[in-house]
Design goal:
GO biological process, one term: mitochondrial electron transport, ubiquinol to cytochrome c
Radius of gyration: 30 Å
GO molecular function: electron transfer activity; heme binding; metal ion binding
Keywords: Electron transport, Heme, Iron, Membrane, Metal-binding, Mitochondrion, Mitochondrion inner membrane, Respiratory chain, Transmembrane, Transmembrane helix, Transport
CATH architecture of one domain: Orthogonal Bundle
Order of helices and strands: HHHEEHHHEEHH
Cofactor: heme c
Helix content: 40-55%
Largest sheet: 2 strands, antiparallel
Number of strands: 4
Strand content: under 5%
Structural class: mainly alpha
Family: Belongs to the cytochrome c family.
CATH superfamily of one domain: Cytochrome c-like domain
Strand order of the largest sheet: 1-2
Length: 279
């Protein structure tokens, strides 16, 4: 019986593996037709099991987003309070929020009014609606960047290569009007022009603002916005893991204690003496 169950499990595993391989094979031509250069894996400092996000890089990335990316991209799910204790102090976050004007109301007279932003306010949208965003960007609305790292295959690796991968199209490759060649973008033609250049901004901490540094910092900041529980999750794991190991050890000991007599028992045939019949 156990042999039959093992054979069935092996057949099921083989069928699952064959089906997965076939699905991967069938999906490969779709990626090949896009002529997309896949991003390589980069040694991000926060990728380790027990590594946290680089707070200094997150802070620099916020200012890159504010001075470069925010002109076209929104982050409608991120509020200024989310930055407190991560890359800004509470006073700095309040000052950043106060720089924007938020429509609020109605007041006592039923009119809407403008007020300075507060910590509870979300990042402003550069366009009033999607149609305005399309009209200002050649028909392509810039995506919201709140969870862009989680929404793109490759995550931060993809964003870094996309931001630094602009180049002239190869010979024979035609790019439409208003589009730019980037081999990391599906299809190779992207409506967003190159946004990052060397020394386009100046970092307050004196870090050289090279193109790669700018891309690294803004990708780290977008990693934080996409996964704000990143550090908390790893911190909780450090507290839970030792107890998990203890529970595993206790479970193994209990299993040995319960099933030892079943594994060690022996079945012996006892020859009974013939029964005597009295007449």
């Amino acid at each position: 019986r156990w042999l039959q169950l093992g054979r069935r499990a092996a057949l099921a595993a083989g069928a699952l593996g064959a089906g997965s391989g076939a699905a991967l094979y069938l999906s490969t031509p779709a990626f090949a037709t896009e002529l997309t250069l896949h991003s390589s894996h980069l040694p991000w400092s926060h990728n380790g099991w027990f590594s946290s996000l680089d707070a200094a890089s997150v802070r620099r990335g916020y200012f890159v987003f504010k001075q470069v990316c925010a002109a076209c991209h929104s982050m409608k799910f991120i509020a200024y309070r989310h930055l407190v204790g991560v890359c800004l102090t509470e006073e700095e976050a309040k000052a950043e929020a106060a720089e924007i004007q938020v429509q609020d109301g109605p007041d006592e007279t039923g009119q809407m009014f403008e007020r300075p932003g507060k910590l509870s306010d979300f990042f402003p949208n550069p366009y009033p609606n999607v149609e305005a965003a399309k009209a200002a960007n050649g028909g392509a609305a810039p995506p919201d960047l709140s969870f862009i790292v989680a929404a793109r295959h490759g995550g931060a690796d993809y964003l870094f290569h996309l931001l630094t991968g602009y180049m002239d199209p190869p010979a024979g490759r035609l790019v439409g009007e208003g589009l730019y060649y980037n081999p990391y973008f599906p299809g190779g033609a992207i409506a967003m022009a190159q946004a990052l250049y060397n020394e386009i901004i100046e970092y307050e901490d004196g870090t050289p603002a090279t193109q790669s540094q700018l891309a690294k910092d803004v990708a780290t900041f977008l990693t934080f916005t996409s996964e704000m529980e990143h550090d908390d999750r790893k911190r909780i794991a450090l507290k839970v893991l030792p107890w998990t190991l203890v529970l595993v050890a206790c479970s193994w000991f209990a299993k040995r204690h319960v099933f030892t007599y079943l594994k060690s028992r022996k079945i012996a045939y006892k020859n009974r003496p013939p029964r005597k019949f009295y007449t």
